[in-house]
Prior knowledge:
It contains 17 helices and 15 strands. It has helices at residues 2-7, 11-16, 24-34, 76-86, 133-169, 189-195, 199-202, 216-228, 275-288, 307-313, 318-321, 334-347, 390-395, 407-415, 421-443, 448-454, 459-468, and strands at residues 37-41, 47-52, 96-104, 108-118, 125-131, 174-178, 184-187, 235-238, 245-255, 258-267, 292-296, 302-305, 349-358, 364-374, 381-388. It is elongated.
Amino acid sequence: MIGETLTSEGRDTLAGGGLPPLAPDMVRDVVATAADISLMISPEGLIRSVMVNPHHPSFGQLSAWEGQRLDEVLTPESVTKFRLRSEGLEPGRGSIAVELNHADPRSFEFPVRYILHRLPEDRSILMLGRDLRPIAEVQQQLVAAQLAMERDYETQREMETRYRVILDVSRDPMVLVSMSTGRIVDLNGAAGMLLGGVRQDLLGAAIAQEFEGRRRGEFMEAMANLAATESAAPLELVARRSQKRLLVVPRVFRAAGERLLLCQLDPADVVQPVSDELLNNLARLYHEGVDGIVFTDAEGTIRGANEAFLNLTDSSSLAAIRGRSLADFLARGTVDLRVLIDSVRRTGQLRLYATRLTTDFAGQIAAELSATWLDDREHPLLVLVVRDTSRADTLRRPIPATGVVDEPVRNVMELVGNSTLKDIVAETTDVVEKMCIETALELTRNNRVAAAEMLSLSRQSLYVKLRKFGLLNKDE
């Protein structure tokens, strides 16, 4: 039908436009592939034929539309739009574009943009349509994204308002500082009063310049180290503008990929309760004491340590050792750690446990450990006081000049002049070996498995030596 109409008398016109004459079947194929959907509508409004582009199969089979009225496959508003647009359409006066929504009895709706052509033979209308569903889907996605952005924007405004109200009404002076620039990002009115300025003047100012005798790099490093230390004493500073002595407690956090420093300010001249004097003294001892202090959990994982312990182990910072096992710093590793934890859990305390510490650079130093078990909390802690004994060991003599001498050592001394050096060395080896085994058994509370690991012996070898030195009971 379409091929016959287009090629009856319009063949010369098409040829005059530079197109060769086309057979009716070829014209039908050209029309079918030129649009996603093509309809031929009779003057009475009936659908004579429907052609769907074979390369656009999403419409499915629409052959059931043929013979129906066009009004039956359009939504009511599209019916009105089609009638208004097609009334002024005349042959030879160009085409008209119109967007229509189809309503199929199978309960789906899709928009199509049609180009309407009035044919001169019988005033039929040729409708060449382009599927608008992809564009409609993109538009829906854009609308949904816009709505989501508006909701996020409203949520952000709400959260910012809450944050601003809480910061302004808070009685605690607080300052937010950027870790990358060292400049003040935000502060409340209470902090501005202590620093001696107003919020507008302090925003963007370098925090180090607001205190006497402080440089930016040194100040930010000190604040970061203080924030990484749990239960650290506040840093006492003098505000440059107000000349007030302030106590600063920093906290580091991350927001939107940026590290921020929250500084809580307090006047240093506020009278402190008497009970705080002990806490301050203990805090000073922890940070400035000569003996290392380490806090670990029940498994020996380091939770905190003071500067003296970092010096003993040549560690760069607390962050470098926090979360590591204490066994990493003991020469005998897990053997020492297990002996420590088992003994302290059993007795609550352990005094003068001799061992060797391993530094981060594979060095070793002699040390004595004293341990205390704190089990009065939900998560018990092991507290160790570490003392460097390497200097004391160099001053000690193997055999004292005066005083009581152990019996094994006396027996070795009596061999001098009565036996050859070879026999004396052999006897001395047995004495030292026996003393080491006895010491290991004493440290492990007679736990022979742990003692064998401490001495790097197999259990069979340990039992052989126990029998050799008479350290086994008769019934064993």
